[in-house]
Each structure stands twice: as structure tokens, then as C-alpha cells.
Amino acid sequence: MLIYAHRGASANYPELTLAAYEGAVAQGADGFECDVRLTKDEVAVLWHNASMLERAGNPGLIAEMTYKEVSRAYPQILTLDEFLAFAVKNKKGVLIETKHPVISGNRIEEVVVENLHATKGIEKIDVSVMSFSWFAIEKMKRLDPSIPTTFLMHKNSQWFQAKLSSATSIGPGINELREEPIRAMRIKKLGKSLNVWTVDDAADIKLCEKVGVDILITNMPSHAREVLRYP
């Protein structure tokens, strides 16, 4: 089971920053997870919420601000280009979540594909583009079917969406997997791999190992490695 750092080693560092991903490397993570949004001038940046209020104290919306305005409000912000270059340099896999719904619609998938194609050495690391949007995953297939995808599921997601998805992986939340461990077997029977988020509790980490999770997404990579007794 591989261990991917959720927004970097975000239990110890500001999420989605270079410091968080450097921390993830130090903690032995096999890969990184990130959230991606588009600025007004179509720069893909690592950011979770639509607004900058919670992290930067700025009420502006990422989609309504230029990259210059966003970086002025939060100098630590990473572009997708910078993130991918760092991952390639450190030989770490990446899970890239596109956020929806957004003002720009499915334009974010187009920009992500453009960024991936432009990243030197990207073929040397594992990549998966993720989304809770079924339509975003299908858009990725049309844009470039060679790029692996992960259909993310929350408690209200319908099973038929996973069953009909073109995604190579399914990503249920740990709460749902804990309540219904048989989900892991059902996903495997679809011929898809299993990426589970966000797993920090020791009992949940052991559950993921038991049911055959492929990628465990955690805020604390070093803790997960310790629980699993990885060297």
C-alpha cells in the first residue's frame, strides 16, 4: 500500500505549500495529493476552497482573481507547474484533484492536461487526475485517455456512478469504507484500484491495509508508515 500526503504533510505544515510537500518527502511519502483551481487568467494553482478567506484572510474568490493578485494575497501559493516539477524532481507520484462546481466549468481539466503534457519527465512518475464530478472524469477521458483518473466518492455518491465511470481508480472516503468495508471488494471486482482519503487514525490505517487499499491518502505520512511498520 502506497502512502500519499494529503495536501502535503498538512498536519505539520501549511497545506498545499512547498513546505508541506518538502515535509512529505522527509516523512517518507510515496506521493502527493493536491487540489487545483483556476485563477481568472487561467493559471492552475493549488488551493482547496473557492475563497481565500480561510487561509489568507482575503475574501476574494480564486476564480475572480488574477494569479498576480492571488500570489500577492498568499505568497506561498504553488502553481501546478511548480508542483509537478517538484514531484518529478523527487520521483513522487501525484493525485491531482480538480474542484467542481466552478465558474470556469470543465476548463480546469483542459489546463491540467496542458500542464501535464508540458512537464518534462512526467512520464517517470505515476499520475492520476481526480474529481468528485463524474462528468469531469469523462472529460479527462476525451481529452487524453492515457492519463489515469480517480472518481472520488462521498457519502451521497451513487454506486452506479462508480460502476459506469471510465476512471481507473475509485476513491471513497475513509468514513464510508469504515462503515461498509465490503465496498473495497466491490470496487476491486470492477477491475479498479482503490485510493482512500483522508486516513489518519491508526485503526483506519490498519483497516485500509486489511481490505487491500492501493493508495492511502493521509495528512501524516510518517505516522502511517509507523503504524504499518514500514522501514
TrEMBL record:
<dbReference type="GO" id="GO:0008081">
    <property type="term" value="F:phosphoric diester hydrolase activity"/>
</dbReference>
<dbReference type="InterPro" id="IPR030395">
    <property type="entry name" value="GP_PDE_dom"/>
</dbReference>
<dbReference type="Pfam" id="PF03009">
    <property type="entry name" value="GDPD"/>
</dbReference>
<protein>
    <submittedName>
        <fullName>Glycerophosphoryl diester phosphodiesterase</fullName>
    </submittedName>
</protein>
<dbReference type="InterPro" id="IPR017946">
    <property type="entry name" value="PLC-like_Pdiesterase_TIM-brl"/>
</dbReference>
<dbReference type="GO" id="GO:0006629">
    <property type="term" value="P:lipid metabolic process"/>
</dbReference>
<feature type="domain" description="GP-PDE">
    <location>
        <begin position="1"/>
        <end position="228"/>
    </location>
</feature>
